[in-house]
Amino acid sequence: MKQLHSWHWISAAISLAGMFVFAITGITLNHASSIAAEPIVVTQSAQLPGSLIERLREAPVSGNTPLPESLRAELDDTVGIDAGTAPAEWSEAEVYVAVPGPGRDAWISIDRASGKIEAERTDRGWVSFFNDLHKGRNTGTAWFWLIDILAVACVVFTFTGLLLLQLHARHRPSTWPLVGLGTALPLIIILFFMHL
User: Residues with Cβ < 8 Å from 34, sequence gap 6 or more?
Assistant: First the structure.
């Protein structure tokens, strides 16, 4: 019993903030069409210096390799987009890099002959940011693993909670009817009110 309580409160402590954020973003995702959000789009043009145009001409004419470090630094300085290690689409005419992120999108296109840069950033706001965190959209490897760790902590929390309910059920007669209702309600909605 003591061990069960320990596992229950430890898993609750680990998953508390995550469950709160995922519950709130579950509501915002469910009502996304009724939450007004106007994306902010910023389009920019710039020109690469001659030395970097030469580097572009020497680069591969096809493939999906990331941009060289010197080119990434120049793009960050001129158009304010950090391409990081995102794969670039190389062709004879241009280099294109998509740089998505939670709640935002960005892309950069560079003409290989002239060195002309076209870039666009779109910010969809904080609700979109948190919705993308909920879905794990464009959030990276660390967030991917955090979601899994929180999910495991939630599973431990609910399983130990179920075992604690079983231990205390004889003193609380409404325990199993409430557990049954919590289980039956989603099933009833899926079976009878959802168009599958």
Answer: none
CA 141 from centre of chain: 10
Distance CA 173, CA 182 (A): 16
* Distance between CA atoms of residues 60 and 122, nearest Å: 29
Contact 72, 88 (CB under 8 A): no
Q: How confident is the model at residue 80 (pLDDT cuts 50, 70, 90)?
A: very high
For residues 109 and 7, the answer to whether their CB atoms sit within 8 Å is no
Picking from 138, 145, 78, the residue whose alpha carbon sits closest to that of residue 110 is 78
Structure tokens at 96: 């294109």
pLDDT band for position 91 (cuts 50, 70, 90): very high
Buried b (16+ CB within 10 A) or exposed e, 94-133: bbebebebbbbbbbbbbbbeebebbbebbbbbebbbbbbb
State phi, psi for 88 to the nearest 5 degrees: -100, 145
pTM of the entire predicted model: 0.76
Three-state DSSP class for 31?
coil
